[in-house]
Amino acid sequence: TNRPGPLDLFDLDDLVGEEERAIQQTVRDVVEQQIRPHVAQWYDEGSLPARELALELGKVGLLGMHLTGYGCAGTSATAYGLACLELEAGDSGVRSLVSVQGSLAMYAIWKHGSAEQKDEWLPRMSAGEAIGCFGLTEPDAGSDPASMRTRARRDPAPDGRGDWVLNGSKMWITNGSIADVAVVWAQTDEGIRGFVVPTDSAGFSAPEIKRKLSLRASVTSELVLDDVRLPADAVLPEVTGLKGPLSCLTEARFGIVFGSIGAARDCLESALRYSGERDIFGRKLAAFQLTQAKLADMTIELGKAMLLALHLGRLKDAGRITAAQVSLGKLNNVREAIAIARECRTILGAAGITLEHPVLRHANNLESVLTYEGTTEVHQLVVGQALTGESAFR
Ligand code: FAD
């Protein structure tokens, strides 16, 4: 049969360049060969072979792919988004690994780091030989990172520069237990600053958070900093204040605008396939009007999400995307993706609740995606503030 897939119906090919399409296809192939055959088992076991995967993804050039220099591919933002889409069609946990590596940990060093920090970490991170994590959230500071308690103080030294000593803890940190380097944000006398912390530093530990019901094919950890002593040049020199971590989050959030579409597309393809095979009341499930109404409505939301993502990609490539625009993209696309995943689950009936099909795995993953990188509510407040000029955060 030559029926179009849900996104084919929109005929969006002209909106994507040839090179971008080739990158997307490469990532799609990697997902089909290296992720899809194993991901249900990883999810079931609550584990991810992150080291092996990082090396494979590094080989294809997916880690920090939109950055330039240091072995990074320097692709368009749109190409990076399309890669996120295909990775998340595999699993949101795999996309999270890539987002945190490229858009949070690497981007923080690339944008705000010293030449020495970049030389030391970026080439190995882009190759997947070193894994990074990004520690902003704390047990008592999530949506309000300014209230963080982790503190870095200078320990005066004879040369007047002094080491840094870090104390505190971070929570819900993707890649934490497997990371070689952690970008940790902490209060200092000068405001919030970022620190490049090798994870073998004395006093650093990263216990893994277990018993998750979402993003199970992803490592999530606590970071404990107990008198972690770092040299004076461990601080990211180029930024002070909350704008440091927020600049990185805008990067990663942009990837989620696209990524969430991948999870939703995978669910919709699964529901379409299932409804075409399932006989019920003597006909195909796909032949019933209620089923078709669901499929039609979901396809329209998916296409609208894709149009929004491509538009935001072009704005970013033109260097004029705003944080509020990324917020509204993340808010809309993740909210629609999780609605699609849940609706697709109804089409699969009981079969939809197992790992034989990807839909409930995606739906459960999207619960995390709805919350991290700014919750839905926080993005509503960002968009609300852009519209009204009034901040309703506190
Ligand atoms: P809270 O901030 O306590 O929010 C609780 C509820 O209150 C939410 O519904 C929220 O929307 C709502 N709320 C907050 N403010 C307002 C307001 N002003 N008005 C009305 N309602 C409000 N963090 C990192 O730093 N690095 C990572 O790598 C990372 N990875 C993660 C991976 C996973 C799987 C998950 C689940 C989280 C991860 N996070 C990470 C943390 C994530 O960014 C936070 O969970 C998120 O910022 C929300 O913080 P919180 O969970 O403390 O919720």
Q: What's the β-strand tally?
A: 11
- Which outline best applies? elongated
Low-pLDDT stretches are none
Structural class: alpha+beta
Percent of residues in helices comes to 40-55%
Bound molecules: flavin-adenine dinucleotide
- How many angstroms does the end-to-end distance come to? 55 Å
Order of helices and strands: HHEEHHHEEEEEEEHEEHHHH
Which quaternary structure do these chains form? single chain
Mean pLDDT: 97
Rg of Cα set: 21 Å
Total count of helical runs of at least 4 residues? 10
Strand content: 5-15%
Sequence of strands across the biggest β-sheet: 4-5-9-8
Largest sheet: 4 strands, antiparallel
Enzyme class: oxidoreductase
GO molecular function: fatty-acyl-CoA binding; flavin adenine dinucleotide binding; glutaryl-CoA dehydrogenase activity
Keywords: FAD, Flavoprotein, Oxidoreductase, Transit peptide
Domain Acyl-CoA dehydrogenase/oxidase C-terminal: 241-387
Describe the protein.
The chain is α+β, with helices and mostly antiparallel strands and 394 residues long. It is built from 10 helices and 11 strands. The chain has a 4-stranded antiparallel β-sheet, covered by helices on one side. A hairpin with a 2-residue loop joins strand 10 (279-280) and strand 11 (283-284). Helix 4 runs antiparallel to helix 5 (115-126), helix 7 packs antiparallel against helix 8 and helix 8 runs antiparallel to helix 9 (359-371). The longest helix has 35 residues, at 243-277. The structure holds flavin-adenine dinucleotide (FAD).
Which descriptors apply to this entry?
394 residues, alpha+beta, four-stranded antiparallel beta sheet, three-stranded mixed beta sheet, 11 strands, 15% strand, elongated, binds flavin-adenine dinucleotide, flavin adenine dinucleotide binding, glutaryl-CoA dehydrogenase (ETF), transit peptide, flavoprotein
